[in-house]
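Case study 2.
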Amino acid sequence: MNLTTLMQAYVFILAGFVGFLVIARVPPLLHTPLMSATNAISGISLVGSLVAAGAGRSVVSTVLGTVAVTAATINVVGGFIITRRMLGMFKRSDRRPSDAPKV
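Prediction:
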C-alpha cells in the first residue's frame, strides 16, 4: 500500500467518523431540513456516479460506477420517502370542517 492510498483511506475513515458525530448530535426538530440537504448532496453524488459509470475507461470503473449509481439512487429515493413521512407527522388529522381555511 503506497502513501497516497493510505492517506485516502485515512481521510475516508475520518470523514465517516466526523459525519456520524455531526448527524448524531442533530436535534430531532432539525432532521427534516437536514434530510433535504442530504438529498441534495446525494443528488450530486448520483450525477458523479453516472459520470463514473459512463466514462468507459475500464470494466472495473464501469462496474463500480454502476454500483455507485444504484447506491446513490437508493439513498435519494429513501431520503425523499423519509422526508415525506416526517412531514406527514406534522399534519393534523383531527381537523374539523369548521377549521378549514376560508377562501
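The longest helix spans residues 59-88.
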